[in-house]
Design brief:
The protein is mainly alpha-helical. It has a domain at 36-128: Fic/DOC protein, Fido domain (Four Helix Bundle (Hemerythrin (Met), subunit A), Up-down Bundle), CATH 1.20.120.1870. The chain is built from six helices and no strands. Helix 3 (57-70) crosses helix 6.
Length: 136
Amino acid sequence: MTDRLESVIYPSVEKIIEYNLLAISLIKAKKGDKAQVLSKERLASLLEECKTLNGDVYDKAVFLLASLIRKHPFASGNRRTAFIVTKAFLIENGVSFNVKDDPSQARVMTGIREGYYSNEEIKEWIQHGKIREFKR
């Protein structure tokens, strides 16, 4: 696990944009899905905020995941992109991402978007793959 936060590897804005294109290409959700950046500034801002965030690499992963979902920097595929970015971020930093690559996880992502889960619950989900069921 990465103990020294200054050694954390962060994705670039360009890499996140590539992941959005990948998400849209591989995981079709809607007929009108298109890979389009709505705000590069929003992406750059959330990355800078992530870099200055106190906490371990999992805390930073929670921030990345929730911010990419809630700040909606893309026209389509924000939740799919957030999932891919978070998984890649943790793997690149030598720690595990224990959420199954399964369409059933989409409900959890909706819950994150709607503020249903706390950061602690999201961290537990990323680390151990367990989270309470999302209910509206």
